[in-house]
Every structure is written in C-alpha cells, then in structure tokens.
Amino acid sequence: MLYYSRLRMLGVVGICLISALLCLPNFMKSPSSSLPWHQVHLGLDLRGGSYLLLQLDTKTLQHDRLQSLEGEIRQGLLSAHLGYRLIQRDDATASVLLTPRSESEKESDRKVLEELTPSIPGELAINEKDGRFVISLTPESIRARAREAVSRSIEIVRRRIDSTGAIDPSIAREGEDRIVLELPGISDPQRIKTLLGTTARMTFHLVSPDPLHAGPGTTMLPLPEGRGEIAVEDRVDVDGANLTDAAATMNEGQWVVELKFDNKGADDFARITTENVGKPFAIVLDGHILTSPVINGPITAGRGIITGRFTARSASDLALLLRAGALPAPLAVVEQRSIGPSLGAASIHAGVVSLVAGFVLVVLFMLLFYGRFGLYADIALFANLVMILAILSLFGATLTLPGMAGILLTLGMAVDANILINERIREEVRNGRKPLQALQAGFQRATGTIIDSNATAFLAHVMLFVFGTGPVRNFALTITIGIVTTLFTTLVLSRMLIVRWYAHKRPQELPV
Amino acid sequence: MRGRHAGLIVSALLSIASVVLFITPGLNLGLDFRGGIIVETHSPAAEDPAHMREVLKAGHINAASVQSFGSPQDVRIAINLPPGGEDEHVTQKLVDQVRTVIVQAVPGVQIQRADAVGGSVSSELFRDGVLALLFSLGMILIYIWFRFEREFALSAVITLVLDLTKTIGFLVVTRFEFDLVMVAALLTILGYSTNDKVVVYDRIRENLRKYRTMPLRELLDLSINETLNRTLGTSMTVFLAALPLALFGGSTLTGFATVMLFGIVVGTSSSIFIAAPLLLLMGQKRLRKAG
C-alpha cells in the first residue's frame, strides 16, 4: 500500500507532464512547423460565425431521374421501331408506367426495357401489372442516389464556399440527406445562402488559337492545379446542362472519363468535334478550366471520353465533378444560427470568468474543509483541468460555451471522489483505526462507490452525446472526457500524493 | 426515517403540481423546439423596443415579441413559425429580411445573433431531446439493476422521475426557455442525482452485509447519516461550481445554471428524504423486516 515503485510514480507524473505539454499549443505559437501543434478550436458561439443546416430536396432528385428514365424508355422503343399507347410517370411510387401498343409487341417491349442501362446497379425493377409494365426505382437505389447526391452537393458546396474566400469552413454530411455548414467569422450568411441557392453551370468552349493572350471574344481562364492561364473562347459550344452522365472507366489500360450527352448535347458535340479535329477545347466549371483535352476525332454518338494522366481516383473525381456540374437537386437551408463577433467575445469572457470563479470557489472549499487532504484534492483538480484541455487539444476538438459549462461542472463533481475518500478515512479514524489502516480502508471502500457513481453519470452523458446536436454534444463531450480524467486524477494521482506524504512523515494522526 | 411519510407526500404533491403545470400553461419552448426566428441586436445607443417594432412594421414584418434584454442597448426579436408552416424557405427568407430592414433603419446597429429554425428541424430536435432523456433514464435503471438489486433500481428511478418532474415544474414557473441546453441541464441533474443515490445505496448495501440483524429502518437511518457529510459536501462543491455560471454565464447559460442549482438542491434532498424511504417501502418484504 505504501510502496510506489519509481516506475509507477514516474508514469503518473509523466502523464501529468505530457498533458501540460499538450495544452501548450493553446497558449503559444508553434516554435517549429515540424512539431505536432494541436489546439482546441473555439466553437462558433465563441468566435462568431454561422451555422447552416442544408437539406437536399430528394423529391426533385427522384423526379428528375424518373423524367430521364421516361425519356430513355421512349428513345429505346423508338430506336427498336416499337410504339406504345401511354408512358406515364408516377412520383408517388417512384415508377414509370408503360402501356404497350398491342399484346404482340409486349415481348419486344420487355426486351427494350431489360436493356435500359441503370445509372446505379440494381436500380430498376420491371414488373407487369394489369397489362402494363411498371418500371420502378428500387428503394435501395433511391437511397443510394440520395447519398451520392449529398456527397456531390458537399463537393459543390465546398467549391462554392471556397470561392467566397471563407476561412476554415467546415462542411459535413448529417444523416441521409443533410449537410452541415460551419462558417467561422461569417456572421451574415446572406451571401452564402444566395450562392448555395444558385445552380452552377458547366460549359464546353474551344481554346483560342492564340491561347496565351486574351483577345476579342476570349477570356483568360485558370488551368487546374495552378498551371497558369489560357485564353478560352467565350462562345459556349456545348452546355453542361446537356450532359446526362459521366463515369470513370478503363480504356486501353488507362483511366478515362466517359461522358454521355442528351440529344441536343450530342448534336452540338458532333458538330464541334467534326469541325475542330486536332484543336484543344476546354471544359469550364465555375470559371475554372477542369481539363483541356485535344479533340482526337469527330464524336457523333453523344458519348465522349476525356483522356489525361488519370489515376482511378482522379478519374472518378473528375467524373463526379462533371456529373456534379450543377447541384443534383436544390438545397434548402432549414436551420441557421449566426453569432456576431462581439457576442462571441462576450461569451468567451463570460465562460472564462465563470470557469475561474467556480474553480477558485471549489478549491477554497476543499482547503477549508479538508486541510492538507483538501490541498491534495486541489492539486488533483488542477491536473484534471489540464488533462481535459490536453485531450480536447489532442483531438483538435471544438469548445463551445456549453462545453465550458461542462468542464466547470466536471470540476465540481470531480472533488466528489476526494470527498468520498476523505469522509471514509475520517469515519475509519473515528472507528478507532490506526492511520495506515484508516487510509487503506478509506481508499479501498471508496473506490467501488466512486466507480459506481461515475459510471452512471458517464452513461447518461454518452446518451446525451449520441442523441444531442450542436452545443449539447459539446457539453456531453467535455463531461464524458471529464469523468475519465476524474477517475485518473482522484484514484491515482491524489491517492499517490496522500500515500507518499504518509510514507514520508509517518504521522500519528491523520489531518482529517 | 420518521419523517418519511411527510417527505414522500410533499414530494409527490410537488411533482403532481409540476405535471399539472407542464400540461397547462406548459413549458416555454425555446427556438430549438418551437421553430421560428430570433434576432438579437445591439444598438450604439439605448434602444426602445417600441421603436424597433415600428422599424419592423415599416418593413412589413410582424414580430411576435420585441423586448429589451441584458442591457438597454440590446433588443431581442422573436418571430414564431407561421402556423402549419413547414415551409423552410419562408423562415429563411424572413430572417434575412429582418436583418436587412434593421441594418438599413438603425444606423450603427450590430446583429448579435440571427437564428432561424425550420419546422421539420425543430420537431426532430424535440424528438432527439426526449429520446436522450428516456434512454438515459433507461441506462441508469439497467445499470443500478445490474449493480444492485431490483428494489434499489426501482426506487432510484422513481426518485429520479420525481426530481425530473419538479425541475420541469420549476422551468414552467420561471418561464425559462426550454431548449436543447435545458435538456442538457435536465440530464446533468439526472446524472448528478443518480450519483448521489448510488453513494447512499452503496452504503446501505454495505451495511446490510455488515449488520445482519439490524432492522431495515434503523439501518437506512444509519446509512444516511454516515453518508450525510459527503452528500452535503459534494452538493456544496457542485453548487459552488454552478453558481458563477448562473451569475456571469451570459444569456445562454444563466437559465441553464439556475436550473442546475435548483436540480442540485432537489437531487440532494431527494437522496435523503425520498430515495431511502422508498427503499424502505419496497424492500420491507424482500430485503429485511423494517423492525
């Protein structure tokens, strides 16, 4: 009980020192760029900024797909020289209904339907009902499409936000069809909201014959990856709106991006590629050149491939971007929270003042009521604060005002463990035990109680973290971290301090 | 244990009153759960809410409430969601409109806060809040059941429900806005109160083993007294920690911390006056004779 190996003590002190080191980045600048330098991020409520929750309009997404599916069916029947009585869309059941022209054409119709290319594997289910074909989108494919659409939207949203010069924006998926956007420092998000409400446009242009100088009817546009600028003709030869699909595929052992156009796009593309073989053209998205390949030959099938030094990743990224030329579906802002910078500063002030005041009050209380053992509890309490900050820094976690409240409450609760131990030791002394036995019994009996009581609080706050959103999560996070650090600082650190003191002094009476 | 019936009856009455208050007039739902718009402004000079109302009216905006809050320069504008309004677009447009109107009409004004929560989001937030509360209660029940015996778990959860209802009653009476942060407060009170009960129960369990023949009533009294110092000491430190938040925490945290303070008092007293007497009531047959 009294013996602490040197290794063990070094371990405990080491953990405290490492924690203190981890806190440093919050208070000073990094001395060298090679050092890992993580710090706690202030939440939007403290630094000012905007939080936007965007919802993808999945109904439109589904509607658009049904519309194109309807077109494909019509086209398929037409090219197979088949007729039909009626083709209908039904948004409610996510399906297209085809009434064949006659019983005799049914088999051929079915063949056409089965040859439809699904845009997602397993997308289409073909059934027959009351003499009609029901071509429906499977629920899995609808969900997959929504997921993919959110990923695409995030990409587009990111490009758009970046173009506004916002610093440190954070964009993340939430749930199946939502995007969370955090914009530090932007307390008036009107412009962003407008930007996200607009659909981007992708266009195909010929590169000017004199690509290094802007002339009449051309504009200098930046090449990807900072490779400078080239002059591109202003005239739009093909509009991205006429693109129906883009996919990454292998062609002659190389990754390429395959494009599919609708009728108008195919016609435009055929014309321009026939007239300009050997010339470069540019695919422009939001004023940036995505790629500028050379036209190898006429492309008349409404399909084209873009070659380049693609890897599997970059090809699929480009395909994704091409498909994502415009937002796949409208994004609606469903929640907005903006905090002005001065309110943020006031909140930091309020949080720090409360934290310091609360800490001092608890420290004084412990000193007053438990004397020397109170002092040890206070040292442990300080170590606790340092460790919470260290863990938050290590993971680059965010700290909000409720998070600060969580830290403060943790500190209030943390001394509970010390109080339990101290009271237990007191009791044992009163029951006539010798100091050493009292210490031993006190620690031993209190430990079980401490673990039980902290476990329940831990469970409650994990639940809060799982179900909570925004500021509440942060509150739950700091408390959950705090419970773990509390167990260490009270059961290990303050215990060690007390035991070492006792082993050193061998007092006849305990100062409890 | 002598005052146990009085304690239980008073507690039950208070909780029933709280439930009645909860039904009518009900909680003052905050923006998170009600949906709508809140805009807080800070003017360079003292701002009359009536003037701000005029400004908004001139911009064709009818605010539900325009109030001073904090300092006389600060005004808080609240607009409720249009009834049956699931139309997110309207809410979002409105908040920008409010901002524009105010910035144009009041020179030098700062928009401190502009929040807009759509109908679908607010109902989801409410659902998640309730789920968090229920799951927490459930987890606590399971944990105590697992670590102690059935009587302990049941009386702990009944006590917690009594605590919780009283805190909700307090929320109704004080008209603090009930938002997500308040759910966090309720959960913290729940966690804290459980912590308290666990410590007392732990001692009861220990004493049940130690004093094989002591009548249950006496044993509970002894256990409560033995842990009383700790119960009060810990309540004191948590109270001291939460006090500065209530005093200096700013508009976001004052309500939160005040409710916490109330919860600490309720949680502490219920550990002494409710949780153990309930155990006596339930455990008389199974645990031991009351004597």
From TrEMBL, chain A:
The keyword Chloroplast does not apply. Its main location: membrane. Residues 334-501 form the Protein export membrane protein SecD/SecF C-terminal domain. Pfam families: SecD_1st (PF21760), SecD_SecF_C (PF02355), SecDF_P1_head (PF22599). It is found in: Cell membrane. Gene3D superfamilies: 3.30.1360.200, 3.30.70.3400, Multidrug efflux transporter AcrB transmembrane domain. Residues 150-208 form the Protein translocase subunit SecDF P1 domain. It is a multi-pass membrane protein. It comes from Bombella apis. Forms a complex with SecF. Part of the essential Sec protein translocation apparatus which comprises SecA, SecYEG and auxiliary proteins SecDF-YajC and YidC. This is Protein translocase subunit SecD. InterPro entries: Acrflvin-R, SecD, SecD/SecF_arch_bac, SecD_1st, SecD_SecF_C, SecD_SecF_C_bact, SecDF_P1_head. Part of the Sec protein translocase complex. Interacts with the SecYEG preprotein conducting channel. SecDF uses the proton motive force (PMF) to complete protein translocation after the ATP-dependent function of SecA. The chain crosses the membrane at residues 346-368, 375-395, 401-421, 442-469, 475-498. Belongs to the SecD/SecF family. SecD subfamily. Keywords: Cell membrane, Membrane, Protein transport, Translocation, Transmembrane, Transmembrane helix, Transport. Residues 227-329 form the SecDF P1 head subdomain domain.
